[in-house]
Write a structure and sequence with these properties.
Elements (H helix, E strand, L loop, with lengths): L1 H16 L17 E3 L2 E6 L7 E8 L15 E8 L2 H10 L4 E3 L5 E5 H17 L8 E5 L4 H8 L6 H6 L1 H8 L7 H8 L6 E10 L13 E12 L2 E6 L1 H11 L4 E7 L5 E18 L2 E18 L8 H29 L6 H8 L1 H7 L3 H7 L2 E11 L11 H16 L1
Parallel strand pairs: 1-5, 2-6, 6-7, 7-8, 13-14
Antiparallel strand pairs: 2-3, 3-4, 8-9, 9-10, 11-12, 12-13
Helix pairs in contact: 8-9, 10-11
Length: 415
């Protein structure tokens, strides 16, 4: 009986793994060499056929799986195809390729400006739906050109755009004037009816002053270009880089940011500013929203000092803190003005007000856009200097002169 059971089990396994037509019922294993791992993918509205989608990929042609191995030089191939849909364009790319393109490791999705201006949802729906793509893929709008032209001009064997974009995660935490948005973040913003979708933008820049020893630079490099603001799924405009730090400070996305300000003696001082807390307070009159106050508490470290005076006393520190606060407040107020110009809540106020008081929010959400256009938004910033890093007294510091100056400043401060 045991032998019979074993034989039946073997037959069942064989039947499961083999269909009547000779095709396996379960997926067959694929070798990694059968795939091109696509790290960067660009999507555009086709310039030649505006009703079609153009998809551009960078495929690695050196080692198996699009990577590199010992003794194998990396070869990159830029491929494009058009079709009425993204999935159709990707199918056309696979049709003429020697390997299947695999999107399970796509780190960056680049969307051309014309696609963002048309209707971003139809160019990104594939990435929000298909099982092979990842919600962690980072999204950028290509400002001023198409994703196809951006990739063709910024890629060379010695300068791979995916490697450079990979540094953004760390870079944005330090510069404060751009940000990272993933596909899942984009989905959440697109589904918020009262707020804008805000995505980081990139632009090309000349590389006349850059060279690589032992390789060639591409035709162009790229740089952050602020934020793209989308209203009703279409590009409404941009937060310029000078507004972007203010936008990050208003929305709690500023980790650290370098600022150049003058100390009380008029010497340039480089400080690293960090956000300690951010609080939004709506002011209500019954069910009517009268105003909103955004209070930001910052801390700062002194990273560079051109003067030779000891500024680490109450009076000069207070003046330096006021200077930093005024600088950041001005940037935040400019971001508020720009958001009003774009005609949509791109500061995430709606969600924060709803969270504070969901019952009262229900009574105003129907006309939020009109209310946002004229709502008083007050900004308050306070700053505290935390540390001077490894050096308190600058080179050339003279203790006696500093003591006399500190005494004079204290007497002046006390009146």
């Amino acid at each position: 009986m045991r032998k019979l059971r074993f034989a039946v089990a073997i037959l069942l396994v064989c039947a499961t793994l083999s269909g009547c037509s000779g095709e396996p019922l379960l997926p067959m294993m694929n070798e990694i060499d059968d795939f091109d791992i696509i790290q960067v993918l660009g999507i555009d509205r086709s310039a030649e056929s505006p009703d079609e989608v153009e998809v551009t990929i960078i495929a690695g042609k050196g080692a198996g799986g699009g990577g590199e191995s010992a003794g194998t030089e990396r070869m990159l191939e830029i491929e494009s195809a058009t079709a009425p849909t993204v999935i159709g364009a990707l199918s056309n790319l696979n049709l003429y390729s020697d390997r299947r393109h695999h999107l399970g490791y796509t780190d960056f999705l680049l969307i051309g400006e014309s696609a963002a201006a048309d209707d971003i949802s139809k160019y990104t729906d594939y990435f929000t739906r298909y099982h092979e793509t990842r919600y962690s893929t980072r999204v950028f709008i290509i400002r001023g050109t198409s994703a196809h032209d951006f990739l063709k001009s910024t890629v060379s064997d010695a300068h791979f755009v995916a490697d450079a974009l990979g540094n953004f995660d760390e870079t944005v935490r330090r510069v404060g004037n751009t940000g990272i948005v993933s596909v899942i973040d984009m989905i959440n913003m697109l589904d918020a009816p009262d707020s804008a979708t805000v995505l980081p933008a990139l632009k090309t820049r000349d590389v006349d002053d850059t060279m690589i020893i032992g390789g060639e630079m591409p035709e162009k490099d790229f740089a952050p270009a602020g934020y793209a603001v989308l209203r009703d799924f279409k590009l409404a405009g941009y937060f310029e880089p000078e507004y972007s730090l203010g936008y990050n400070a208003l929305t709690g996305k500023m980790h650290t940011a370098p600022l150049n300000v003058k100390d009380p003696d008029g010497f340039m001082t480089g400080v690293i500013v960090m956000s300690d807390s951010l609080n939004l307070t709506p002011v209500w009159d019954g069910d009517k929203l009268k105003s909103v106050t955004i209070e930001s508490v910052l801390s700062a470290n002194v990273g560079e000092q051109h003067g030779r005076n000891d500024i680490y006393h109450d009076a000069p520190l207070a003046e330096l803190c006021d200077t930093i606060s005024a600088d950041v407040k001005s940037r935040m107020e400019k971001a508020v003005e720009r958001a009003r110009e774009l005609g949509v809540d791109s500061l995430d106020l709606a969600e924060r007000i709803r969270t504070k008081n969901p019952v009262k929010w229900k009574r105003i959400e129907g006309n939020w856009r009109e209310l946002f256009a004229q709502l008083p938004i007050n900004v308050k910033v306070t700053t505290c200097i935390r540390r001077p890093y490894d050096l308190r007294e600058p080179n050339g510091f003279k203790p006696q002169q500093a003591a006399d100056k500190a005494k004079t400043a204290k007497e002046k401060h006390n009146g």
